[in-house]
Specification:
The chain has 730 residues and is of the alpha/beta class. Helix content is 31%, strand content 23%. Strand 14, helix 10 and strand 15 form a beta-alpha-beta unit. It is globular and about 85 Å long. The structure holds adenosine-5'-diphosphate and zinc ion. The site of zinc ion has 8 residues, from loops. Adenosine-5'-diphosphate (ADP) binds next to helix 7.
């Protein structure tokens, strides 16, 4: 039971403002519950906050101001408060920033109200079809039963509101008065599922048992692509719904949600709530409210869905759990996989981590018995894992500025000749990663970052992949002013497309690269077109590795399997292994056998050999041994500290000052490395300096870090980012 405060009681309110502590207020007229979302005065402003508990007092009571009003939202539950507090402690994030993650609901302060919404009307066609009218109807039909506000509908269709109004007059679009925030249609877990195979049924049974126990537990569901992991964890979702609890499924990529929503609809008879950046503000507000009131049984979403106010969360699935996009790399630095485990342990829920290529962290936890391990060994039905072979590029003698070997080209020709699809994988966006002046050797860089600009020929611009800044391709060298001497070096997917066009002039080519699509919908349409057979050759960056289903695809060619191996990053081998495996897993999903060919200059490299051998367990064991010996995660703890400032001197000075006061860290036996210029020494005009802290697995790292950092007050323009368990070291 939440405790209730009477009018005038002294209460403590945590606001979303960066203040460093909760503030005291008086409970408003009518009182309020602990956890209530409130509006409070702060100086001249009104800000959002949550009633955190009893006030601290110690001030002149007469000066303490009352809460302005209690918002129309269910109070924050105790388990959510505990989750936010523990997540803040773990990631060393100030509580107000944590609270901001948990209050990302547009219009949280709005009063409950009716509003006009628009959906498909009863009249089939207007007197006259215009392209604009067609777009409106297309949007409404795509989203089935959903209703939109006037502004949203017009924006999504890319038309003016008068077009919508015109359709309303004719009855093609219906205008209705509707309460905001309706519950989601109920999902029916008793509908028939597929007939699970023996090992699928066994895994599903164990997951169901876990959900029914209502106790915390994490399972690692490991199985090759196409082995039915999704079918299996949908059974855990079914068990959760039967138990009357809520479920959350996290996906690493928005573009994957469309296919998943359809599968949920097939299995449970209705669509679940959806939460990610591509969802309209109205719909996000509805999700947030319905989740807290129990009007949403299942949410499918991105990592930030972990901070939704579930009233009774019983299951969290993290699909493709190894995916790096689960780590938020700006603002609050958290890993959604770890936070899912934390949240579940607080609210007695189960976690399912699903992957064909688990992260080493999860694999080690499963080995150690901390996670339950469930393995699916076979692909479903006829589909078998693709055969994998290396192409030794030393023997291929490729001429300059060509990247597709004769061996690979021959295989592509054969497959597309048989009416099948081939995928060429290159994890580099744009046309060429480097543009060099042949007269003076100058490489075009970003003005604000210590990074080279990447040519994007479709957009006719150079782009910085660090800060997103673009500029037109210059005609002369910015350094020596020589005309017509700038030349691209190395391939990106756009350049590869040129080579493909020259080699296979008849083939239909599709490029899948995140920067080529203005919206998630456009990307989804392209993926559906490819799946439907509208391309012979697909050229793709890592977005193709993320679980899309291309039934006609039988050949995967990896253009540069060595690309990820050189990095100094401690996870370079692991990432290459995962990426290559995932990409190869795209081939031969249905009844045709697949083939994966990897172009490499180092076929003897242990990682390449592990990929080819198909002996995953051997790879993880070897990788785990190396990390154990080096005392690095998951066998030791790490924190990355990035200092940044427009002033290069200041940032180095501060780094040195910190490095000279490491007593709090030494007390727990931690080692400090740095300060050193970060690999990317400047981003968006800010100079960057890194320190790296290493400690033993059991060491109380967070406490020591806060004591250490608390010793010095940073200069005004200097920012400190603390990254616990860093995934990237740029
Ligand atoms: P994964 O998530 O491991 O990649 P999926 O669950 O997506 O695998 O399964 C791959 C394909 O095989 C899907 O189309 C799925 O519906 C189908 N499938 C898997 N198991 C079964 C089964 N037991 N009966 C029927 N179809 C199945
Ligand atoms: Zn830049």
């Amino acid at each position: 039971m939440l405790r209730h405060f009477d009018e005038g009681d002294l209460i403590s309110v945590l606001t979303t403002q960066p203040l460093g502590r909760a503030l005291d207020y008086k409970a408003p007229e009518g009182g309020c519950f602990e956890g209530a979302f409130v509006e409070v005065p702060l100086g001249p402003r009104k800000v959002l906050g949550v009633v955190w508990g009893e006030g601290e007092g110690g001030y002149d009571l007469a000066k303490i101001r009352p809460v302005i009003r209690v918002l129309d939202a269910a109070p924050m539950r105790e388990d959510m408060k505990v989750f936010l507090t523990r997540a803040a402690e773990y990631t060393l994030t100030p509580m107000p920033a944590m609270l901001r993650l948990a209050t990302r609901s547009p219009g949280l302060g709005d009063p409950p109200a009716m509003r006009l919404v628009y959906r498909r009307g009863t009249v089939d066609a207007p007197d006259r079809w215009t392209p604009a009218r067609q777009k409106v109807v297309a949007v409404l039909e795509e989203f089935g039963g959903l209703a939109f506000t006037l502004g949203e509908l017009a924006e999504m269709a890319g038309v003016s509101t008068s077009v919508v109004k015109g359709l309303v007059k004719q009855g093609v679009v219906a205008e209705e008065n509707s309460p905001r925030d309706l519950p989601y249609p109920p999902l029916d877990p008793s509908l028939a599922s597929v007939n699970l195979t023996g090992e699928q049924a066994e895994a599903a049974g164990l997951l169901r048992g876990g959900v029914v126990s209502r106790r915390y537990g994490t399972a690692l569901l490991k199985g090759v692509t196409g082995s039915g992991k999704t079918e299996v964890y949908l059974e855990a979702v079914a068990a959760c719904l039967e138990a009357g609890r809520q479920a959350l499924v996290l996906l690493p990529e928005i573009a994957l949600t469309a296919e998943f929503l359809t599968r949920v609809e097939d299995r449970f008879g209705a669509r679940p709530a959806e939460w990610h950046s591509g969802v309209t503000a109205t719909e996000r507000r509805r999700v947030w409210k319905m989740v807290s009131e129990g009007g949403a049984q299942l949410v499918v979403g991105a990592r930030s869905a972990l901070f939704l106010p579930f009233s009774d969360l019983g299951l969290i699935v993290v699909d493709e759990e190894h995916d790096t996009s689960y780590k938020q790399e700006d603002g609050v630095l958290y890993n959604a996989r770890d936070m899912a485990v934390l949240r579940a342990s607080i609210c007695h829920a189960r976690v399912v981590l699903a992957s064909a290529t688990p992260s080493l962290e999860s694999w080690v936890n499963a080995e150690a018995g901390k996670y339950q391990r469930l393995t699916l060994t076979a692909r479903f039905g006829e589909a078998v894992m693709p055969e994998m072979r290396a192409i030794d590029m030393r023997a291929e003698q490729l001429p300059a500025n060509r990247w597709i070997s004769d061996t690979l080209a021959g295989a592509v020709r054969q497959r597309i000749g048989d009416g099948e699809q081939a995928l060429l994988f290159l994890n580099r966006r744009g046309y060429a990663p480097v543009t060099i002046c042949r007269a003076c050797g100058h490489q075009i860089g970003c003005d604000h970052c210590d990074a080279r600009m990447v040519e994007h020929r479709f957009q006719k611009r150079l782009m910085c992949h660090q800060c997103g800044e673009t500029k037109p391709m210059p005609s002369k060298c910015p350094s020596c002013e020589a005309e017509e001497r700038l030349a691209p070096v190395g391939p990106g997917v756009e350049r590869l497309a040129e080579e493909v066009a020259a080699l296979f002039p008849e083939a239909r080519v599709a490029i899948l690269s995140s920067d080529l699509f203005g919206s998630a919908r456009a990307l989804k349409a392209q993926i559906e077109a490819i799946a439907g057979g509208e391309a012979d050759i697909i050229i793709g960056t890592q977005i193709v590795a993320k679980g899309h289903n291309f039934p006609l695809l039988t050949l995967v060619g990896v253009i540069d399997a060595d690309l990820g191996l050189q990095g100094s990053d401690l996870r370079a081998a692991e990432r290459t292994f995962q990426l290559m495996r995932q990409v190869a897993g795209r081939a031969g999903r249905v009844e045709k056998p697949g083939l994966a060919l990897m172009q490499t200059y180092q076929p003897e490299h242990p990682v390449i050999r592990a990929i080819l051998s198909g002996e995953d367990e051997a790879f993880w064991k070897a990788e785990a041994d190396e990390r154990r010996q080096a005392g690095v995660p998951p066998f030791g703890r790490m924190a990355g500290i990035v200092l940044s400032s427009p002033d290069v001197q200041e940032v180095f000075d501060f780094g040195k000052a910190l490095a000279a006061r490491t007593d709090p860290l030494r007390r727990i036996g931690a080692q400090v490395f740095g300060p050193a210029a970060a690999p990317i020494a400047r981003i968006r005009g800010r100079h960057r300096v890194r320190l790296l802290i290493k400690a033993d697995k059991g060491a109380p790292l967070q406490g020591a870090l806060s004591d250490w950092l608390a010793q010095l007050k940073p200069p005004t323009n200097l920012r400190i980012a603390v990254d616990i368990d860093p995934q990237s070291f740029y």
